[in-house]
């Protein structure tokens, strides 16, 4: 991916950090999803899934503001949270504080591809809206890397953006998109969307068993283990 585009994505998330969670907590409409309650409703569904199934030693890749942390932290032993946006991690750090879980959390501000980990270190990798910003080369690097990081029976949980007819009216499934913040600043980001057929293609390509646990208007959640 071009350096200029990568820098732009990081700037976008740095500046969006303060308003990032508003769609989940307050509701609202976007260009592709006009129903103001959709984000709130689907966020509740995902939070229940994480609360039920996420446990052990966790690596949260592209953790952002740590929105999902209150739901999975109670059942987690150790949590490593990675994001290359310092402003996003600042928001996340505040959550860690009021949840009083500082002792079991480790924050890393860096590009995931630059980070080093022990082999077979984690029970679960939680990957939120990261794969959708990876081009094909980065996608392969990601799966090669996380395979080494996870225990033999370790799980990958992907939370990402769902592709559907409603989104296809205003978005391309893959490519450069313009995003605008509340202050009017505009950024170009690389973005792709996923449906069940895309998940199956990933399963075949990287020898993974995937289960799609949720596919809504906004989000898709799929869980996988390497074969």
How would you portray this structure in words?
With 227 residues, the chain is of the alpha/beta class. The chain has a single domain, classed as Rossmann fold. The protein has 8 helices and 9 strands. The strands form 2 sheets. Strands 3-2-1-4-5-9-8 form a 7-stranded mixed beta sheet, with helices on both faces. Strand 8 (208-215) and strand 9 form a beta hairpin. It is globular. The two termini are 29 Å apart.
SSE diagram, text form:
Blueprint: H1 3-16, H2 22-25, H3 38-53, E1 56-61, H4 69-72, E2 76-83, H5 86-99, E3 105-109, E4 122-128, H6 136-149, E5 150-161, H7 165-168, E6 174-180, E7 186-192, H8 196-206, E8 208-215, E9 219-226
Parallel strand pairs: 1-2, 1-4, 2-3, 4-5
Antiparallel strand pairs: 5-9, 6-7, 8-9
Summarize this structure briefly.
This protein has helices at 3-16, 22-25, 38-53, 69-72, 86-99, 136-149, 165-168, 196-206; strands at 56-61, 76-83, 105-109, 122-128, 150-161, 174-180, 186-192, 208-215, 219-226.
